[in-house]
Amino acid sequence: MSVETPSDIAAACLRVLWTDRRHFADGMKATAAAISRSHELIAESREALARAATIKLPLNLPETPSGPADRPPICIDCQLPMRYLVSQLDAAHALIRHVLFACDCGRTSCQAVVAET
Known about the structure:
42% of the residues lie in helices and 18% in strands. It has one helix at 6-54; strands at 83-89, 96-102, 108-114. Strands 1-2-3 form a three-stranded antiparallel sheet, with no helix packed on it. It has 117 residues and is an alpha+beta fold. It is elongated.
């Protein structure tokens, strides 16, 4: 059995502290790199939004349907033309408009209409 001297104990503690410090420094470098990358991604996102703001999409779609949807669908229950209720742009696709028709009998019909470019 060997007896450890105080200097051996201190040296072992210093080795552990240096190892912990190196691991901490490596973790800080990784954290700093991740923060830097997130700042770069934010800057790229802002640039993409600025570019997207300059793109002109044909958003002057009419409020009422035009083209093939001028004629409302025929109700499958009572065989009468349905009436136009409302139309709304699609949330994901700027060129698609959802048109809702209703019949007096209570049946509804939703049609997707693609805008002409």
